[in-house]
Amino acid sequence: MDIPVYSMAGQVVDHVAVDESALGGKPNMELVRQAIIMYEANKRVGTAKTKKRDEISASGRKVWRQKHTGRARHSTRASPLWVGGGVAHGPRPRDFRQKMNKAARRKALYSAFLAKAIDGEVMVLDRLELPELRTREMVAVLRNLGVDRTFLIVPDRHDPDLWRCTRNIQGAAMRTSRELNAYEMIRPSRVIFTLEAIRQFLAGAAQVERPAREEVEVGEDG
User: Are 60 and 149 part of one and the same domain?
Assistant: First the structure.
């Protein structure tokens, strides 16, 4: 698979070859789905809480006597039946966090990248050096690339000045190639890599685990 490399003027100047086999061959969308659910669940705070009847500050005195009043039987004002009483079966603090092992998270990231690349939603810039550190300059580059919806810019390193020029644009996000995950990759309509960032990303995908060190037999001489 070849991904076109654009200049800041929006012209195709080169192509980047992508080895699909190093990224898993084809997108595993079920794994991507699991990763997205995990990342969204991990964003939940889980602090919603209501008071039960034993946590309400109210008198324990019986509202009225049990019999011969013609009214329903009631006990304390802390009962869920009364306004200001406790809440029956209300939310309690809980931890929503889910886990995926590192290998599964990386496979989900590569599957998300492949899915975006197949759909033509991954772009590469040969360089991203604005003539002026102004938001309007970044808007002009995006206009040249035909980006008019949500987008993620992936530089090879942190650049606070570049982010300052981008953050006020609606739908903007920025992550370095080492910070990417499946959730950040799949969300925007366009993912824009710099040339060095895509090289870092693909180099990380191409790395294989080192073979286990072979045991060396030690003879009698030691």
Answer: no
Question: Max alpha carbon distance in the chain (Å)?
Answer: 103
Give pLDDT tens digits for 146-162. Answer: 999 999 999 999 999 99
What 8-state DSSP symbol labels residue 102? Answer: H
pTM of the model: 0.79
Cα 154 to Cα 191: distance, rounded to the nearest angstrom? 7
Amino acid symbol at 156: D
Strand 12-17 vs strand 2-6: parallel, antiparallel, or unpaired? antiparallel
- Written as one letter, the residue type at 90 is G
Phi, psi of 69 (to 5 degrees): -110, -15
One domain, residues 126 and 29: yes
Range(s) of the domain holding residue 182? 2-44+100-206
Alpha-carbon radius of gyration of the chain: 29
